[in-house]
Amino acid sequence: MKYRKLGKSGLKVSEIGLGSWLTYGTATAAETAKDCIVKAYDLGINFFDTANAYNNGEAEKVMGSALQAFPRSSYVLATKVYFSMGPGPNDRGLSRKHIIEQCDASLKRLGTDYIDLYQCHRYDADTPVEETLRALDDLTAQGKILYAGISEWSAAQITDAVRTGQRLNLRPLVSNQPIYNMFERYIEQEVIPVCETEGLGQVVFSPLAQGVLTGKYKPGQAIPSDSRAANDQTNGVINSYMREEVLTAAQKMEQLAASMDAALSQFALAWILRKSNVSSAIIGASRPSQVEQNAKAVELVLTEDVLAEVEAIMAPLKSFAPAR
């Protein structure tokens, strides 16, 4: 495994991280999830990401329980706050009340004394950014969190947060967690340049486009009955990928990967890691073998000629924007 600094902080995270969205505490049984986490740890993956909202806290419990087997100082544990965790008017968002209460609740579910990276899961237009940042800074001062980050904030929102933090002399944000893959590239235009300037690293989710960049789905063929696309009809993102032109591009990408003796998933992850501002690509896994295969992506180097071929394959999809 290889490691990169998380933004301009001194924290080093594995180039491949393991996440629990749509898997642990839901589709993947706890024992299988534990096997994936153990395999990831054995391979040198030290970045583990979850959120309080994933299956209403169950994903945090599964991940926290599995990580108990390892020294706490040997891994970087990340979770998030924002989405609804109850019926009350203060059970969601980024108010001081919700952040403080949910941090304590996450610590209990994770079974740990501190969270390495605490992330604002979305932007909260109803709460002053000053209130959010002060709450995160206080949690850091208390030792409950070590670093703070955000997820899916716009370039303008990131800039405002950074300037506000500087004005108030608060500890800086260190990371942003956006969706990023060959089909979903919006962060390249403004988000990455702003983050490079302000010192935030990307820890990207859905790098394999929810399975599309594994070669699972083929153009002109029926969707596999045991796949996410066939069984999660509420998932607008993956359903928007199920188009012939998208699947054709993925198939061409798979052929390009094969020419390098690589799996499509490895190729897609290496493509993401070409960006120096990306600190880690967060994969999901339902089997330990998937973790093992995808971890090998750090060994794959894509030349400028190969990257040019990728752009040529993706060119017809420039106007394509998955549902978000």
What's this model, at a glance?
The protein is of the alpha/beta class and 324 residues long.
Instruction: Tell me the radius of gyration.
Output: 19 Å
Q: Element order, helices and strands? A: EEEHEHEHEHEHEHEHHHHEHH
Number of helices: 12
Quickly count the domains.
Answer: 1
Spans with pLDDT under 50 lasting ≥5 residues?
none
- The CATH architecture can be given as Alpha-Beta Barrel
Ends distance: 31 Å
| Widest beta sheet: strand line-up | 3-4-5-6-7-8-9-10
Biggest sheet record: 8 strands, parallel, barrel
The first-level CATH class is given as Alpha Beta
Q: What is the number of strand segments? A: 10
Task: Report the portion of residues in β strands.
Answer: 5-15%
Shape by Cα distribution: globular
Secondary structure category:
alpha/beta
